[in-house]
Write a structure and sequence with these properties.
By secondary structure, the protein is an all-alpha fold. It is built from five helices and no strands. The radius of gyration is 24 Å and the shape is flat.
Length: 150
């Protein structure tokens, strides 16, 4: 909760987490590619997706199931590449328009700060419902949901 409030404060500050340094040199292409590959290799969600979703498209009597899985994986990667390139190009266009308008940046900072505060409030409310004793609830023998009932 405290970290989320800190993030909200940083988002509101002019030079906080949402500040963009136009003079900073972009990372080298090689470094960007290596970072992208490492993120994808180390992300277990992609592997879980492949093992959970794609096998249903391979027939049980398929003579070369590994080849079929590799083909399906390749098609998935090609589609994903196309979509992410479109996202990147769109983001680059929007970035220039947003950065030229200080009022838009101010509203973005406020929106992010509000989101962090809302997440913190949600976290506190869930904690209070999950652990009523920590939130100040009294323990009575026989009451459900208290430590005495465990």
């Amino acid at each position: 909760m405290i970290y989320l409030l800190y993030m909200a404060w940083q988002a509101l500050r002019q030079g906080g987490v949402l500040s963009v340094d136009e003079a900073a040199a972009p990372p080298a292409l090689r470094q960007t590619i290596i970072t992208g590959i490492l993120i994808n290799i180390l992300n277990p969600k992609l592997s879980i997706f492949f093992f959970a979703f794609l096998p249903q498209f391979v027939a049980t009597d398929e003579p070369y199931p590994l080849l079929r899985m590799l083909l399906l994986g390749g098609v998935f990667m090609a589609i994903t590449l196309t979509v992410f390139v479109a996202y990147g190009l769109s983001a680059a266009r929007v970035r220039d328009r947003v950065l030229r308008r200080p009022a838009v940046m101010a509203w973005l900072r406020r929106a992010f700060a509000g989101g962090f505060v809302a997440l913190g409030a949600k976290l506190v409310s869930r904690f209070q419902r999950s652990y009523p004793i920590a939130a100040g609830a009294h323990t009575n023998v026989g009451n459900k949901g208290t430590l005495a009932s465990l």
